[in-house]
Amino acid sequence: MILRNTIAGQLVLLLLIYGRHTLLSSAKTVANEQMSLALPEPRAYLPDAQNLDFVYHDHEELTRFLRATSARYPNLTALYSIGKSIQGRDLWVMVVSSSPYEHMVGKPDVKYVGNIHGNEPVGREMLLHLIQYFVSSYNTDQYVKWLLDNTRIHILPTMNPDGYAVSKEGTCDGGQGRYNARGFDLNRNFPDYFKQNNKRGQPETDAVKDWISKIQFVLSGSLHGGALVASYPYDNTPNSRICRSSALCAMFQTYSAAPSLTPDDDVFKHLSLVYARNHAKMSRGVACKSATPAFENGITNGAAWYPLTGGMQDFNYVWYGCMEITLEISCCKFPPAYELKKYWEDNQLSLIKFLAEAHRGVQGFVFDPAGMPIERASIKIKGRDVGFQTTKYGEFWRILLPGYYKAEVFAEGYAPREVEFVIVEQHPTLLNVTLQASKYIVGSIGNAAARKPKKERKQRHLLNDELPMPNE
Ligand SMILES: [Zn+2]
């Protein structure tokens, strides 16, 4: 009941659903702290060169910076490793939040992943600067304070430290350092929803899969280089030819690949636009080179650009309902260090405002009739056939644009419920759902388990298949 008290203190209860009735209610204003949109913009900021210069940091320097920062800001940061690369380098994650060591009940966890391709390290450096910006601005920037008070931000600056170690500064194209130490492309190494992926799971990928399975991330960005665009799921498609080289991909593009759209396409487009429009030039959609595509408004569907199997963003979305997009932030994969300051200026606002999008849409709890949270209740927004589940505290989040929605809520041993709700622009809708015990005994027709969404069963099945891919 401690939980309930906390919740009561934090939330405005919008809807309690009993019996078969559904309520339609306009959303009410929540506490000021939830109202991200009313806050002033984050201020322009350049990190203190004494703490973090605009140069590339090798793994030792990166480790030293993260350790020093966590020692200096123990109330705002926590440093953990999700595993090691093949060559034994730690995959460090820095949490930045006013509650770095503990999940804040009712508040979302979000993440950034950098450097999945070892030779695309601008994102890796941007994430170090983002960490530095957050910790040093918490007391002076209202927006940053609000964000860190209401969000746990997990930052993995490098997912492929071994690849980075053999990459070369100033190399704008090519594959040297792209792969892990065994030659696997980590962004082709995840289980795939559309095609079987027979590539052997790599330690870096396994570490990320394990991480995602333990923390329910609401929103995520994966940082790449080699283009300037925000790309959103799906990356794969049921009926694509897969191009195995950039030359082939470029050729396919001239035949205009078909987009492969998720049921959350409106949300993914919006999230991508938030990044592109807050970026200094991404939304202009100018092509990096004459031979590469120009992207309208600086965004694209992944498969429409070029399809790929085993990508990380499709996995995040299909398996866990985490809204991950791919951020290509530099035309040159590994530009010279003197350009890093410019990249930071171009990306800092995008990096911050994208994370605040975790506070858009619907969030709430699923309770049993005694007011206890129900873990692993399945929720499906009607018309969006990707299920997601409550946490052990019964929490859920779903990023949605303004409109009327219906959610179906299922949990084993409880009667399923349908709930209607409204999303407005200004603040998240808080939705608490109480499920009544099922009248049927487990296993009988009509019990909640038997009605679990089809896709969820498929997802679980797919988790056991490991899988493979091409090359760009
Ligand atoms: Zn990449």
From TrEMBL:
Signal peptide as annotated in the record: 1-27
Region Disordered, annotated ranges: 453-472
Record GO terms (molecular function): metallocarboxypeptidase activity; zinc ion binding
Originating organism: Drosophila hydei
Family: Belongs to the peptidase M14 family.
UniProt cross-references to InterPro entries, sorted A to Z: CarboxyPept-like_regulatory (IPR008969), CARBOXYPEPT_ZN_1 (IPR057246), CARBOXYPEPT_ZN_2 (IPR057247), Peptidase_M14 (IPR000834), Peptidase_M14_domain (IPR050753)
Name used for this protein in its record: Carboxypeptidase D isoform X3
Annotated Gene Ontology cellular component terms: extracellular space
Keywords attached to this entry: Carboxypeptidase, Glycoprotein, Hydrolase, Metal-binding, Protease, Signal, Zinc
Family annotation (SMART domains): Zn_pept
Positions annotated as active site in the UniProt record: 328
PROSITE patterns on file: CARBOXYPEPT_ZN_1 (PS00132), CARBOXYPEPT_ZN_2 (PS00133), PEPTIDASE_M14 (PS52035)
Swiss-Prot/TrEMBL cofactor(s): Zn(2+)
Alphabetized Pfam families for the sequence: CarboxypepD_reg, Peptidase_M14
